[in-house]
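Re: Re: token formats

Sure, here are both.
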Amino acid sequence: MLRAHWLDYLLSLVMARRPLFGSGWGDSARLDRFLMGLGLEEPPEPLAIAWSPSREYRGFVVRDGTFESPIAELPHAAHRGHLRALLPRRQRFARPRAMYVSLAGSGEEGFAVRLRLFGPLVEHFGIGVLLLENPFYGLRRPPGQRGSAIRTVSEHMLMNLAMVKESLGLLESLAEQGHTRLGVTGFSMGGAMAALTAAITPRPVAVAIFCAGRAPKYAFTRGLLTRSIDFEHLGLTEGGREAARGRLRRLFATADLDRHPVPRCPKAAVIVGARHDGYVSPEEVQRLHELWKGSEVRWLDTGHVGAMLRHTVALRRAAVDAIDRLVVVRREDTITPGTPSVAERPNCVSL
């Protein structure tokens, strides 16, 4: 922790004012089910998205959409999903258009941060991006929740599960529309859930992971994020802080990537880590790279916060390079509209 960037320490002081899990563990039956597995074995289904009229925003087009989440357990306010599509305005970009699904990081409500990050990607490279609002955040925040501070552990795990399930559905929706060059991306917690989505989806996808590692459990039990967790409260029913830390580690271990398949196209995975990250250790980023053999890891000489504030160009470059490693092989074969055949599926290519 001594090598963490000073901006990461500053963020930890701010976040500690609204501790996570202030209402305890939450639904015990739900937590027990999570220990048995995430329940993501069923083939993903496309989401039915209701789109608003498009509008121009700087050098690209924006559309807002809503859908009903496939996760029935979400509270009413979180069950209606919200997303924002960033689409190229100019028609010179080749179709089928490359499209990313982007997941939000911890505490990231709304779309402003990712609009700043991915807007130039859309405008200059013609890559579309769907920005998903996380359940329990922003437009999907339940009444009584203070900001983005999730009240219980079970709600946080439900949010993570919904992020993955909804992302899988969005990928299917894009494929149904005829898009064959697809990717997932995210920063911090968003990166961890994007990585899990890439591991579970049956489709070969590009993966651009920013400041996330092999095992999300360590972010919640080590490093600066632990300053934001109310371990005192959690420990009341577990026999102390360390017992609570151990239970939290076991719960979040269900998302460890070494428990899940390697993505179908690891060569199209670019992982960006920060050498002075106080939230996600560089060792965990390196372990993810080693687990996904064929992936590329890139390092920024900054911390967790600095990666997003000062290195957006490097993050965008990683997203462009990842999607470029998926190629569409076309033949004259007749295919069913909206269903990629062997003739039109993305394939991995060596660099």
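Second one below.
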Amino acid sequence: MRIVASCVAVVLCLASGCSLAGGGGEGAASCAFVADYDGRRYSGLYGAEFTLGEAVGTAVLPACDDTGGDGDPGVGAREVTAYAVAGVDPAVAIVVGGVADTLLVVQGARGQLPPEVVRLVGRGE
């Protein structure tokens, strides 16, 4: 699987928390790509190049209502399969079923990506 992104985009995403949550009103934004797995929340890290590992359990994609209060209920929470990433502890990063082209990094890693994740982002540069 090969995806390339700039480190600047990655750092901006992690620094901002990638957690703009919709919920109605004029300021509604698109829901962030996040998942909850094994007691941790993970945020999407676009542009990493990685090898998908084995299934490690079930992750939950939280509910999302980014419709701006137009009466559309949005999307409810749903369970998906969580997969390991070759060479990275699942406590640091996972990939979820249905979106196998986006690495999810534990939110506690914001500001300073672990070296094993930096290597995944830097492969395509």
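The CA atoms of residues 52 and 68 lie 35 Å apart. The beta strands are 34-37, 40-45, 52-61, 78-85, 93-96, 103-106.
- S.
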